[in-house]
Amino acid sequence: MAIRIREHLDEITGHGKYVDDVELPDTVYLGVVRSPIARGKVNDISRSDNVLLFLDWDAVSAYMPVRPDPRTKNLVKMPIVSNGRVNFVGQPVVAFVVKDRYEIEDVTEEIGVDYTQETPVLSVKDSLREEVKIHEGGNVAIDLDLSGGDLDQLVNSEVTVERELWQDRIVQHPMEPKGVISYYNGDTLTVIGSFQSAFRVRADLQEALGISPERIVVYSPPNVGGGFGNKVPAYPEYVLTAMASIKLRRPVKWIETRREHLTNPTQGRGVYSRVKLHARRDGTILGLEGTIAVDLGAYAFTINTTTPAFIASLTNGPYRMRFAKLRAMGVYTNKPPTGPYRGAGRPEAALITETLVEDLAEKLGLSSVEIRKRNFIEGEFTTPLGVKIDRAAYKEMFTRAEQVYYALKEKYREKAISFVAFSEVVRASPGEGARVRIGKGEVLVAVGSGPHGQAHRTTFALLAGEVLGLDPSQVRVEVNNTSLVKEGIGSFGSRSAAAGGSAVIEASRAVLQKIRERGLTVKEAMASNEVFEAEVFTRTSDLYTPGIHMAVLDLDRETGFARVVEYHAIDDVGRAIVPSEVEGQIIGGVLQGASQVLLESAPYDENGNPVYGSISDNGFPTAVEAVRRVVSETFSTPSNTLSQARGVGEAGTTGALPAVFLALEKALGRKLSGTPYYPG
Fold first, then answer.
1. Where are the strands (E) in 280-401, listed by range?
2. Are strands 442-447 and 475-479 parallel, antiparallel or unpaired?
3. What confidence score (pLDDT) does residue 373 get?
4. 10 Å Cβ neighbour count for 117?
5. Alpha carbon of 590 to those of 423, 470, 544, 556, 596: distances in Å?
6. What is the pLDDT of residue 565?
7. How many angstroms separate the CA atoms of 194 and 184, rounded?
8. Quick one: pLDDT at residue 1?
C-alpha cells in the first residue's frame, strides 16, 4: 500500500509556509555591506543617517563559533563583521537595520567603505607555498599524519597507480536561500529560520552572544526549502539579527538574496589530492599513501577543519585494505569558507579511491568488476584508520550488480559504462532526542531533527503509529524546535531515519508502558484529561550504507558535451520506512553527483572575484541536462538501531560522482584531472 506523504499537499498546492512568510508585528530588516575585494584592509567607513541601527566592529566585537578538529594548530575564527580586514569577496563589513526591506539597497549604496587592496591567495598550492600569508600564523590550519594498519605491507607492493585530482568548489543551491527572524522580548530571544538544526543554531548563538541556552528558543517554520548542509550552523547574519533585536526590542528579519548566497559561507568541495594505491600483481589491494588538502576558505568556520581527516578516513572504501599512510591538510585561501555540501567528504573520498581502483584494473588488465570483486569486504570490517564498518548485504549486492552491469553492456554496446562501489557513513552518532505526549485528545511527537525537504513528519508518525497501534494520521509531529525537546542534534549526514526514528520508537514505547501500567488503552489515554509523556535521547552509533552504482554516458563527439542516459543505483538502505522517499533521496543525490562532474563549479579570477553572478553561471542543471533515467534497487539489511534504517540522503551523490566521472573518462578515452569537465 502506498504511503501518503503528508508534507506534499501544502507544498504542491502553494500553502507551504517558509521563513519569509512569517510576519511578526513591528518587524524591521537587516542589511549587510559586503567586501568587494578578496583581501585587504578596511581604512574607513562612512555611515548612513537613514538607519535605525548601525553595527560595525566596535559595536559587535565578536567572532563566529567553530567546532574544530581538536588537532587544528592554527585556528582563525571569522569576525561577525570586519575587524579591520577582509579576506573574501562577500565578507560582511558592516550591518544596519531599516524599517522597510526595500530601503536596504539604497542604504547599502549610501555607506562608503575605503579599502587598501592586497594580493589574495586563491589556490591550495599557492596557499601551501606561503609566499603570501593570509593570517599571522600562516596559511596551514591543520596538518595531520594519518597512518594505520600493517605498514610493513608496503614492502610487498608490486604495482602502484597514482592520481592527482582537483575537485572544484560548488555553491549549494537550495530552492530557498538562508533566512532568519530574531525577536528579543526583554527575557527570551526567539529565533525563527530556515534551519537544518535548531539545536546547533542555538548553541552557536549562545556562544556568540553569551546568553544562556534557557533564554534562547530556536525553531523552523513548517517548511524549509532545502539545505544540502548549508543550513546546519549559525551565520554572521543570524548573530547580527539577534544583536539588533536585543538593542531595538523589535523583530529583526534577514532574508538572503540569491546573489548574497553565491558568495556567502559555506561552499562545498574544494579538495586537492595526490594519492597512490599499492597492490600486488594478482590484484590484491594493499593500501594507500599520499596527500589530501582541503581549501577551507578564509577562516575556520563551522566544522571545516574536520574535513581533511574525515575525507582521509573514508578513502578505504568497501575494500579489504591493509594500510593507510595519508597526510591530511586544511589550508586558508581568500575565498568564502567551505563547509558540508551533500555528501560532505563522502563523494570526495569515493572519487579519490574509485579512480585509483579503476586505474589499477587497467594496469593489470582486469575488468572494473573483477578488481573490485577480488577486494570487496563481505561484512564487518575495521579499516586501517580505525573506521568500523557494520555488516550489510555486500556479497548479495555485488552479485546483483554484476547482473545489471553485464545487461547494460549488452544493451548499450556503443556507450561508456562505469561500475563503482562505496560505503557511505551515516552519521547517526551521538543519537537524537524525541518526546511523545498523549492525552487531551491528541498524540504529539516532537523530534530534534530538522527536515529540509525530507518526509520527516510522515516517517516519524508512521513509526510512532506502529508502536502505539494508531493510524499515522492520528499522530501530530513537530520537528526542529528547541522548546519541545530538551536535547537534539539535527538533520545532516543521512542520519534522521536511523537516529531520529530510533528516538521516536523508544519514546513511544516508554509512553506506552506508562499507559499500560495505568490499565488504559492508547485510545483511552488520548481521550483522557491526563497527559502521559516520555522524553528520551537515544544513543546511536555511526552506520554504513553500501552501494554499487553504474552510469551509462553518451558523448557528443562534435561538441564534447556529455549526458548520462541511464543510471543504476543498488544500495543497502536497511529498513526503507517510506520507500518512495528512499527512491527520491537516491535520485536527487545522483543528479547532484552527476552535475558536479558535468556542469557545476564556482570559479574565481586572479583577483579573487567570483566569475559568476547567477545560478546559471555556476552550471546549475535544468531538467534538460539532468540524468535521464535513474533506476534504484535496494537491499534491506536491518541496522543495529531501533528503526532498523540506515540512511540514503548522501548515497546517490557519493556513488554518482565517481560513476559519472569514470564513465566520462571511458567515453573520452583519457584521464581527467578533476571536476568539473569542460568540453573542448
1. 285-297, 323-332, 381-382, 388-389
2. parallel
3. 97
4. 14
5. 15, 35, 18, 21, 10
6. 96
7. 18
8. 57
- The grid coordinates of residue 408 equal 547494460
Task: Name the residue type at position 424.
Answer: E
Question: Quick check: bond before 384 cis, omega within 30?
Answer: no
Q: How far apart are CA 81 and CA 74, in angstroms?
A: 21
CB 384 within 8 A of CB 324: yes
Q: What is the largest CA-CA distance in the chain?
A: 76
Does the predicted TM-score (pTM) go above 0.85?
yes
- Please give the Cα distance from 644 to 636 (Å, whole number): 9
Rounded to whole angstroms, the Cα distance separating 23 from 21 reads 6
Helix residue ranges per DSSP H, 495-578: 501-517, 522-527
Give pLDDT, residue 622.
84
- Give, for 553, the enclosing helix (H) or strand (E): strand 543-555
By the 10 Å C-beta count (0-12 exposed, 13-18 middle, 19+ buried), 83 is classed as middle
DSSP code, position 319: B
Please identify which residue in the block is written with the cell numbers 593570509: 134
d(CA 487, CA 338): 27
As a whole number of angstroms, the distance between CA 303 and CA 189 comes to 25
Residue ranges of the chain whose pLDDT lies below 70 = 1-2
The DSSP code sequence of 395-430 is: HHHHHHHHHHHHHHHHH-TTSEE--EEEEEEE---S
Strands (E), 172-262: 179-184, 189-193, 216-219, 252-255
| 3 state SS of 58 | helix
